[in-house]
Specification:
Elements (H helix, E strand, L loop, with lengths): L1 E8 L14 H5 L2 E10 L2 E8 L5 H10 L3 H11 L5 H13 L3 H15 L23 E4 L3 E2 L1 H13 L5 E5 L5 E2 L1 H16 L3 E5 L1 H13 L5 H14 L2 H15 L13 E2 L12 E7 L5 H11 L3 E12 L4 H13 L3 E5 L3 H9 L7 E3 L5
Parallel strand pairs: 4-6, 5-7, 6-8, 8-9, 10-11, 11-12, 12-13
Antiparallel strand pairs: 1-2, 2-3
Helix pairs in contact: 2-3, 2-13, 3-4, 4-5, 6-7, 7-9, 8-9, 9-10, 11-12
């Protein structure tokens, strides 16, 4: 088995090919040296390689870890033109950490246009109060597996209790069944919110639409399910889908369908990931030499657990100077035969872990999977 670890030294400097100028702090910072231990039958063989950056993405990760966020940002912006999505995700996370919602939104627009896919959504990160102003008082309403009268009543109460100027976020992703009373009530709630010009965000709506489409194809389909689907199309601003379904509704039930009205469409967002339920150690804030309590927690936790699972979702930065101590804890775990998983870390930390060889010591489950 090969086990990499690091030692501090000034014998190897970062690659000059991507050295930022002027950057006296970056030039004088210590680099890490990776020693690979091959524990084979013939004994221990140690090979030394540099932990210095080999690409602009590597250098941006090290600059950020070294506390030079401005330089890291400038370098990341230069990389965007190469379509390296790692740089895009690093910049997204940097803006979240720094509470820069306007820059995040512009980057999201550029990302959607360039890659023709949905960009990441804004996420709050520990220690930065990073809640977008327009979402500061947002209500999050999650509907259960059965959309019935009781679930609809809870939805109605939640919408009513939310400030009229605040965003109402409704998660439809868990719905697996819809009864007639629930469909009727939900359609009325959405219609009332639309007419009141409430700001809506919806997630998991494709799940509900697909379910209603299946119900409507049934021989004995119910009009209320058609009406709920029509209201969803209206809420989403999907006029073509609305009008096609309205024609089918008129033919099927021999009555006039609802009319389309021009209103602001709801914003479709990604459903929030389910909160993991396990015995993970949850760390937050910055991990630095001056504030090493997180690493102390890590060491204590690792000493008492066979499966070492660390949640870094709310960690904003791992300081370059703390990497050796971080590696030391991982090496102790490996020496005891323990499995290690680090999850939820932002893209800036993920690239630092990769550059420093931590991906060779632990399973990494980053916030933005490849």
């Amino acid at each position: 088995m090969a086990l990499p670890f690091f030692r501090k030294g000034k014998d190897k400097a970062p690659s000059p090919a991507h050295k930022p100028t002027p950057a006296p702090a970056a030039e004088s910072q210590q680099t890490e040296t990776l020693l690979t231990m091959d524990m084979g039958g013939s004994g221990i063989v140690v090979e030394e390689t540099s932990g210095a950056p080999q690409s602009p993405v590597d250098e941006a990760a090290i600059l950020y870890a070294s506390g030079q966020a401005d330089m890291a940002e400038r370098l990341l912006k230069d990389i965007l033109a190469t379509d390296d999505r790692r740089a895009w995700h690093m910049l997204f996370d940097l803006y979240c950490i720094q509470s820069r919602d306007k820059e995040f939104d512009q980057l999201a627009l550029d990302y959607a246009m360039r890659f023709e896919t949905s960009p990441p959504v804004w996420q709050k990160m520990a220690g930065n109060g990073a809640v977008k102003p327009q979402q500061a008082q947002a209500a999050s309403l999650e509907l259960p597996g059965l959309l019935d009268k009781n679930a609809a009543a809870t939805l109605r109460e939640g919408v009513a209790a939310t400030d009229k100027k605040a965003v109402v976020r409704i998660d439809f992703s868990h719905i697996a069944m819809v009864d007639e009373s629930g469909a009727n009530e939900c359609a009325q709630i959405l219609a009332a919110a639309r007419k009141a010009k409430r700001k809506l965000q919806v997630s998991g709506v494709d799940t509900l639409i697909a379910l209603l489409q299946d119900l409507n194809r049934a021989t004995h389909s119910r009009a209320v399910h058609w009406l709920l689907l029509l209201e969803l199309y209206q809420t989403l601003g999907q006029q073509d889908n609305f009008e096609d379904l309205a024609v089918d509704y008129a033919v099927r039930f021999e009555v006039s369908p609802p009319s389309w009205s021009e209103v602001q469409a709801a914003e479709v967002v990604q459903a929030a990931p389910a909160e993991p339920r396990d015995d993970a150690l949850k760390l937050s804030g910055e991990i630095t030499p001056a504030n090493d309590s997180a690493l102390q927690q890590f060491g204590s936790y690792a000493a008492t657990h066979n499966d070492v699972l660390v949640d870094l979702t709310q960690v904003t930065r791992v300081d370059y100077g703390s990497v050796s101590q971080f590696i030391s804890v991982l090496m102790q775990c490996l020496g005891s035969g323990k499995a290690i998983t680090l999850r939820g870390h932002n893209a800036l930390i993920h690239e630092l872990f990769r550059v420093m060889g931590i991906d060779q010591l632990a399973q990494l489950i980053p916030l933005h999977p490849d």
